[in-house]
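INFO worker-7 received task bundle
INFO bundle size: 2
INFO processing item 0
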Amino acid sequence: MRFGTISTQKLDELTARMTALEIREADLVERFVRGSGPGGQKVNKSSSCVYLLHKPSGIEVKCQRERSQALNRFFARRELCDRLEALVKGVADARRQEIEKTRRRKRQKSRRQKRRMVADKRHRSGIKSMRGPVRDE
């Protein structure tokens, strides 16, 4: 594997992690596709986005973090290891939990919740208004 400007220590760690998870290069389907989003002409013209498919598990990873294809290859393999590790260990996927958390946070509040929230805010503002300097009347 050649990954450009990545340190040999990080490459060795990735290789060790891949062997521990029994991920072989032969099991990976790697494609380079054109990226999208911000970045201008360079992103739109070059195929720096990396798509990985791990055949045995069926896990797909698409990585376009950097402009460099070599860095994206490294990050895609690291992401694949993360996903496979979560699958193997049976640990609740932290990423999925984070998505659910933001979904719940963005969900629209009921009328009752809104009324209660406004009442609490009014109560709090009444408490805060008493904090001002002492006035002579």
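INFO item 0 finished
INFO processing item 1
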Amino acid sequence: MSTPLPLLDTLQRVELASGVAIELHPAGPVVRARAWLLDLAWMSLAYALAGALIALSTSAIGWAGGSGLFLLLSFFMTWGYRVLYEVHRGATPGKKSCGLKVVMSSGAPLTWTAAILRNLLRAVDFLPAAYLTGLASTLMNQRFQRLGDLVADTLVVYCQPPSPLAPSHLPSEAFPPPLPLSRAERAALIQFNERLPTWSEARRAELAAPLEPLSGARGAAGVRRLAAIGCWLRDS
């Protein structure tokens, strides 16, 4: 029987120069591919509508004028579409639909220079075809950064934690631990409680399983008991 693969926890804690720590949730290649496909659909629709309008106007502006307009549109959609959306709104329509945004690796808003760099390097990430270089890069680092992200020092992150805490896991009451705990163990349980909203149900159950002697339960029930103990430790 094969051993199941460990689940990924993409939470990244970043400490700013001011000493304040923030948490970022980098997006993996699957959700980013979905966002790219949605953007491709938006761009294809824009091409189709613009092409139809240019074709209708060729009688007034001529074939050469229509071709020039289409070339300008192609240039903008290839190099300007993502840059403008990412700088002004933090995400393209495709990324926004998937709950993603682009930020600097420090968590700061994206700058013009970084946006231009990461999008210019799409040409390299695309090589040899279908973004294979970019995919390989995202799988080789913990923040899922493609080459453009590494050069521009940017991250694609979730706008909100990807898996909110289910109501069934919320503790109905707080109670003390049934066993004596060290200072480090108490701190670990409080941190476990704070990070529950950022994990999927499977990840919560996976992390709670080794603590069954403390919680006295498995699965969702074990998670609720640990959360209740964490609440008591936090408030005590």
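INFO item 1 finished
INFO post-check item 1: The CA atoms of residues 87 and 112 lie 6 Å apart.
INFO post-check item 1: DSSP finds ten helices and four strands in the chain.
INFO worker-7 idle
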